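Blinded run. Sample ID left blank on purpose so nobody reads anything into the name before looking at the predicted structure. Input follows.
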Amino acid sequence: MRTSSTFSILFWIYGKRAINNKANLYLRVTLNGQRVNISLKKKIDVTTWDEKLQM
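Blinded prediction complete.
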């Protein structure tokens, strides 16, 4: 019997929560539909963040 598993990783910033044009970087790990959001405790410049490339 085969089982199917799904896994994905997403990086994003909250641009609306930016202070002095710096926003916190977050990571979302999804495994079989279960999501976990993690703050990476890093500040990223909002103007250099590329949403499509997630970097």
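Unblinding after everyone has recorded impressions. Residues 7-43 form one domain.
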